[in-house]
Amino acid sequence: MKRISKIIACLAIVALAATSAFAAEGGNPKKGKYLYKKNCKVCHVAGAAGGALTPLSKTQRQWDRFFEKDGHKAAPEAIKSFSEQDLKDIQQFLYDHAADSDQPETCG
Amino acid sequence: MRKLFALLLVAALAIPATALAAPTVEELQKKIQELSAELEDISDRVDSNEKKTATDRINWYGDLRVKADTLQYKDLASTNFGPAIAGTGMPFGEKKDFDNDILYTTRLRLGMKAKAAKNVSFSGRLSMYKVWGDSTGVQVFDSFNAFTTDGTNGGNPTGDFLRVERAYFDWKDIGGSDFYLSIGRRPSTYGPPSQFRENELRGGTPSGHLVHFNFDGITLGYKLSDLTGIEGQTVRFCYGLGYESDYGNGNLMNPEVNVEDVHLGGINFDALNDGTNFLQFTLFRAENITDAFKGLAVYPAFDTDGDGIPDSPNQGGFVSRIAATENIGDMWLGGIGFTREEMNGMNWFVSGGWNRSEPNGKLSQFGFGGLLTSTAGDTKEQDGFSAYAGIRVPAPLGKFGLEYNYGSKYWFAFTQAQDDIAGSKLAARGNVGEAYYIFDINPNMFIKVGGIYYDYEYSGSGVQVGEPVKVQDIQDGKAFTGFPVPDKVIDGYASLTVKF
Fold first, then answer.
1. Which domain holds residue B37?
2. Predicted TM-score of the model (pTM)
3. Same domain for B49 and B64?
4. Cβ <8 Å between B275 and A11
5. Contact B187 A11 (CB under 8 A)
6. Cβ of A11 and B441 within 8 Å?
7. ipTM over 0.90
C-alpha cells in the first residue's frame, strides 16, 4: 500500500509539472458547436455561398493556421460580430472534430 | 556645405527611383526560371507525398496504457475446488483475506482504418493486454476472468501477443439510401457511458452497461436523422454468434454430442445523439445459451472418481480446452441509457438494465447448474436488474468522477470483457462504487488515479450458470459455488495513458 501511495504521489507530481500543449486553449467546444451551427452553417452548406464545410474538412493544424493566419479573408465581414472568445470557442470545436482528431469508435 | 547637401538630396531622390524602376526583361526571365525550378522541386515533393498517401493503405493510430493496481479481497469464501488444491484449500464455511499489493499491466491498442471505396471503409483494432512479468496466456481457473475466451480476451490480461479485438467493414449509403451494413468482429466493447471513465470518445456501438464483449456479427443500420431531423438518430438491427457448437469440438469423433450454436439478435436505437444529449434503447435476445464458452484454462483440480467433486490437484498444471456441454436456456436483455454533456464541461449519465432468464431445465455436465438455477427441471423465469449512474466534473488540471452501480440477484449481462483487474464492475450482483481523478497532461496524455469498491451480495457475478446464492450463506457453509467468492474487493489504481 505504501508503494502504491508513492506511485500515486509521483504521478500527481508529474501531472502538476506537465505543461499543457492545447492548440486552441481556452475555447469551449460546446459553445463553439452552438456558434458554428447557428452562424457558420448559414453559408457553409452545399449550394450556399460558402460551400460545404464541416470540421472534417481540415486537419487540426489546418484549422489552427486558418484562425491564426487566414482570419476568414474570403469574407472578413462574416466573422466581425464574433468576440475573441467566440472565435476561440469555434476554433476549439473545429479542432476537436478535425479530420485527424479522435473519432467515436462505432460502426456506421 | 550647400553643394554637399544638394548632392545628398539628389542621391536620396535618385535611389528610390532606381529601386522602383521597372525590372528588365532579363531580370524577369531570371525570376521566372527561379520560380519554375522551385515549382518543379515542390511538384517532386508533392508527388512523393501523393505516392506515400496512395500506397499507405492503412492509417494507424493507437494508445498505450500502463497501470498499477493494488487489490484487496475481503472474506474470500471457499469453493468446491478449494479442498483439493494441495495445501491451500479452505474447508467450506471458512473465509480468508487475500491481497495483491501491486500488479502492473500494459495495454496496447493499435487502431486501423482504411478506405476501400467512397462508401466502404475498414476498421480494426489489435490489442495486447498483459500483466508485467507474465506472458503465459493461460491462467489457473479461479474466476471467470481466468478463463481465456473469444469474447473476453480483449479485456483480460493474457500475454505479450496482439489479438484481433476488432475487424469489420462499413458499407454506407447503400444504393444511395441511409442504410449501412457492417460485418466482422464488432466494436462491441467500451460502449456508452464507459467513455467518461475511459477518458475517450464513445468507444463502441452498444450500451456498455449491457454489452462489453468481443462479438462476431452483423449490424444493419439506418440513419433516421435524415428522415426525422433529430441529430444522430440511428436504429440498428444486430446479430451475433456467441458460440459455435460444431467446429473444433471433436464432433467428428462423437457425433452424438448435440449442443446448438448460441445466436444473439436485437435492436439498438440511438434516439438522440447531438453531442450534448445521448439517449439509447437496447433490446436483444440470446438463444440457446450454453453452460460454457470455448476457452483455455488450467483446472486447479480434477474429478478422478466420477462423483463430480474435484479430488485430485492438477499438479502438472495441464492446460484444458473447455467447451460447452449443454444448451441451458434463453435470455432477454434490455436497457435504457441517457448521458448528458453540459456546457460547463460536467458530464453525467444514468442507465438501467434488465434481463430475463428462461432456463430449459437442463444442467451443465460440469456440475455447475443450469441457466441461473441449480435445480434440474427448473424452468422458472427470473428477472435481474441493474442501475448505473455517474458524474464527471471539471477539476483542477483535469476531471473528477464518481460512479455507482447495483446488480440484483439474477443480474446478468455481457460485460465480462471490462478490463478492470478484479472483474467487470457492471456484472456485479451487489453494490459497486468508483471514484477517480484524471489529470489531463496534454490532449494525448493523461494520468488516472482512482479506486473501485465492490460489495458483492450474491455469488456468480458475470456467470450465467448456477443459482446465485448469498455470499453470507457461502461464508456460513450453507451453500457452495464453483469459484471462490469474495465478499468485498477494493481495487486502488493509477494509470498513465498515451494516445498516438
1. 1-56
2. 0.86
3. no
4. no
5. no
6. no
7. no
